TrEMBL record:
<dbReference type="InterPro" id="IPR044992">
    <property type="entry name" value="ChyE-like"/>
</dbReference>
<protein>
    <submittedName>
        <fullName>Type 1 glutamine amidotransferase</fullName>
        <ecNumber>3.4.-.-</ecNumber>
    </submittedName>
</protein>
<dbReference type="GO" id="GO:0016787">
    <property type="term" value="F:hydrolase activity"/>
</dbReference>
<feature type="domain" description="Glutamine amidotransferase">
    <location>
        <begin position="77"/>
        <end position="176"/>
    </location>
</feature>
<dbReference type="Pfam" id="PF00117">
    <property type="entry name" value="GATase"/>
</dbReference>
<keyword id="KW-0378">Hydrolase</keyword>
<dbReference type="InterPro" id="IPR029062">
    <property type="entry name" value="Class_I_gatase-like"/>
</dbReference>
<keyword id="KW-0315">Glutamine amidotransferase</keyword>
<dbReference type="InterPro" id="IPR017926">
    <property type="entry name" value="GATASE"/>
</dbReference>
Length: 230
């Protein structure tokens, strides 16, 4: 099964050198499941020829907001709707989670409650409490009518959404382990509007175990089951 990675952002500098590109991080997350991968730099408007160029699609995170004025965002929304209509399974992570929701009729906003950074605990519908790393302020405020909430916590109501066998989206970052979060904390502290207390708490939680490998297996299972159901 071929997974097309739609690269909506890029790792930079030391993070890219030490930990790899976003396509590499996701290939590592999904390693061992027999997938092949091809990536398209959609942030720079490099798109697949059509929605059937891969057997499944993965929409990555990004520094951008889905409601911002960037040329690639409307084009990506069109592509997502085409894949959805054709039942080509699609997974979205962070920005991808939000982009898919917006493309399918949901609403995304900059959350008034502030940033969620580092290790967080989510209540997953079938699996109980699981820890994952997060880095976001934007949230899906209103989910599309087709979407069902499968994970949430007190800070993020729509933390993971399932759209039947067509799409699975997650607000957190299962591809980002503690060492990568540590690198981002070092790079980002003192920039933007990050609160020192939130950054401090994220540093304190860097060694807490997370369920990234388990979520990677769940994503792989979704891709395979959805592909067979087409």
């Amino acid at each position: 099964m071929k997974i097309g990675i739609l690269e909506c952002g890029h790792t930079e500098g030391e993070i890219a050198e030490k930990h790899g590109t976003l396509p590499t991080l996701f290939a590592n997350l999904l390693d061992g499941h027999g997938f092949t991968f091809e990536n398209w730099d959609v942030e720079n408007r490099v798109f697949p020829p059509d929605e059937f160029a891969a057997d499944g699609w993965l929409v990555t995170g990004s520094i951008h907001g889905v409601y911002e004025d960037h040329a690639f965002i409307p084009a990506l929304e069109i592509f997502v709707r085409q894949a959805y209509s054709a039942s080509v399974p699609t997974v979205g992570i962070c920005f991808g989670h939000q982009l898919i929701a917006q493309a399918l009729g949901g609403r995304v906003e900059k959350f008034q409650g502030g940033w969620m950074i580092g290790h967080q605990v989510y209540d997953f519908e079938e699996h109980g409490e699981l820890g994952l790393n997060a880095w976001h302020q934007d949230q899906v405020i209103e989910r599309p009518t087709d979407a069902r909430v499968i994970a949430s916590n007190d800070f993020c109501t729509n933390a993971a959404l399932l759209y039947g066998n067509r799409a699975l989206t997650i607000q957190a970052h299962p591809e980002l382990g503690g060492p990568i979060i540590a690198a981002y904390l070092k790079m980002c502290r003192g920039t933007r509007d990050y609160d020192d207390a939130i950054m401090d708490r994220a540093e304190e939680n860097l060694t807490r175990p997370d369920a990234s490998a388990f979520i990677g297996d769940q994503i792989a299972s979704f891709f395979k089951a959805a592909y067979l159901a087409r």
